[in-house]
Amino acid sequence: QAVALAIVRIRVPLARLRMGAQCCKGDHPDHGGALSLAEKRGATVSPNFGQERKDENTTPHCDVDTFNNIIILTDSYKVTHHLQYPENTEVVYSYFECRGGLYKEVCFFGLQYFLKRYLVGQVVTESKIQEADEYFRQHFSHPRWGYDEKLFNREGWNTIVRKHNGYLPVAIKAVPEGTVLPWKNVLFTVENTDQECFWLTNYLETLLVQVWYPTTVCTQSREQKKIIMKYLKETGCEDVIHKRNHLFKLHDFGFRGVSSVESAALGGAGHLVNFMGTDTMASLVLVKEFYGESVVGFSIPASEHSTMTAWGRDCELEAMHNMLIQYPTGNIACVSDSYDIFKACEEYWGGTLKDGIMNRQGTLIVRPDSGDLPGIVLQVLSRLESKFGSRETRTGHKLLPDCIRVIQGDGIDINTLDAILRAMKNSGWAADNMVFGSGGALLQKLHRDTEKCAFKCSFAKVDGEGIDVSKDPITDSGKRSKKGKLTLELRDSGYVTFEEGSGDPMNDILMEVFRDGRLIIDQDFERIRHRSEGGHVEDMRQQSMPAEIAPQHVQFDPFGSNILMLTDSYKVTHHVQYPPETVRVYSYFESRGSEKYFESRGGEQPEICF
């Protein structure tokens, strides 16, 4: 079901022509919840801050990361698994792989975030054990049989506190992030380093398997990069690739279309492995905090429908002119389908404002945001060419002047991207005329089975004897798991996973990245990008860390502490795009529905549970 946030009503005194945006005083409640966090970080707080708050019992939500307890970051049934292994189990060794899926080449990314965010440091304490115990006592209680005291392995977690000072006794080996390799290869392995904690390996599965998400986003984003490069070459635009400008051809619009801020950060970072254009600010925070790179993604000033329709239908030309005034140089994007995209292209951009665009230092990028694909793109290109002209590339494809381009951000996924570029090529248009934006399809319209990601036990040691372990269901051969200790090696034929200890450990590409609560290797983002483009998979041991990574990564929520960053980049520029003297903007959220869904239900009115 399509959802949207739209503008409803604006109050705008039009008598003066002075730019400004101001929220009406008293329209929203005091946000005193930030007080404690500000105090913690040494901020100066006004004595009167929060005085208007009536409810003294309100707990500030930003003070504590309520999910920062490794004991409850698991599937409930795993709490009971310590009782199910064979007696005298000493070691459990498991691995993660992509068993198949839509894309045969997998670009591995995201494990380091989970290690630093959730596993590094003293993550087990007596208070967290007590908190988990209280949850499990209620969660597993039964009205007839009550609660079984042995379900929760409290003694096992106490062992981690007593023997390991709360550091997790596991070792994790992984392929270097950014490595591109065929599906059905091992990507990382996990095993316990303390025999008393054999149960811990697969207890961590739930959290670690979430690496499927950044890996899948990164993998699909890379496939779209391959499509864009293909059509750039086929339509005579190789110079775009040589100048590295193709890295800005697929822009991340996905922040609002994902399930959480953390998803936006993880998925957005996965996209940034392949591209440099993004409006998902959370991804920049993640890359800076967890991969040590502060400048990895870029954006430009751009309008949205609220800043354009706030001027009214009769003043759309003034709204567009204002964009050129506010941003006299550089690249800007302007949504142009609020009323009539063709009139906007021919009469406004290509008419009244044409000279300003032609003489401006920078590129105006026109954004249609509705219409059938790929037809609307071809129509917009033709209307703009009729006013601005074009030149031919070496392959004879038409290319608009450098001052004008088009961005298509509505309905873009990997299939429509290919369809649009194919239609453009067949209609004589060069691929460099276009930039694409992708939102929900880039970061949300995928799942764990897109690449069939799985975490399975392949080896155990019981009573001092090693056992090669696997599953092989007769009902689905595709779910056969690997057996024994694994190595990943690069042979003449490519990457190969060797099972049952048959490989050569000296040639193993898997490197130990985590041991006993400490990060062993800290991978930087630029090397990850280099690997994703086919760069050499170097020995990561050259990137060794000090014995212990700074613990702040597991002490606070890195994404929820600054509301200014929790937005799309282009919104940072919107305050100068509204009409002069705007004093209030009122918007609403709805589920707009889907005609196809409505028809599939035989005309039955769908219901939304908010």
Describe the protein:
It is built from 19 helices and 20 strands. Helix content is 29%, strand content 17%. It has 610 residues and is of the alpha+beta class. A hairpin with a 2-residue loop joins strand 14 and strand 15 (465-468).
Averaged pLDDT, please?
A: 88
The level of helicity is 25-40%
Q: How many H/I helices?
A: 19
The order of strands across the largest sheet is: 15-14-2-6-4-18-19
Cα distance, first to last residue?
13 Å
What structural class is derived from the secondary structure elements?
alpha+beta
* Structure summary, number of beta strands: 20
**What's the alpha carbon Rg, rounded to whole Å?**
27 Å
Q: Any idea what the shape is?
A: elongated
Quick structural summary:
This protein is an alpha+beta fold. The chain is built from 19 helices and 20 strands.
Mind sketching the topology for me?
Blueprint lengths: L2 E9 L23 H6 L48 E10 L6 E3 L3 H9 L6 H14 L14 H11 L5 E5 L5 E3 L3 E7 L7 H4 L1 H4 L3 H23 L3 H5 L7 E3 L8 H12 L8 H11 L13 H5 L6 H11 L5 E4 L5 H12 L1 H5 L5 E4 L7 H14 L2 E2 L5 E2 L4 E5 L5 H13 L7 E5 L1 H4 L9 E10 L2 E4 L18 E5 L2 E5 L12 E5 L2 E2 L5 H8 L51 E8 L3 H6 L10
Short key terms for the protein model shown above:
610 residues, alpha+beta, seven-stranded antiparallel sheet, five-stranded parallel sheet, 19 helices, 17% strand
